[in-house]
């Protein structure tokens, strides 16, 4: 019964998960700016740890942004 309810909720779009803090459509405009800066730096080929330190976010967040943009 519970699994059925969860399935119905997912179909309705209720089960979405937590919204991303750093994304192109983040609520906070400053976080959007940081996101675009990270993408820019990744395209320039800068080191992950250097990007993370410069914009003050974790390396894991930089890796997620990199993965989401297909910049491998």
TrEMBL record:
It holds the Pfam family HTH_7. GO terms for molecular function: DNA binding; DNA strand exchange activity. Keywords: Plasmid. SUPFAM superfamilies: Homeodomain-like (SSF46689). Residues 17-68 form the Resolvase HTH domain. This is Bin3 protein. The gene is bin3.
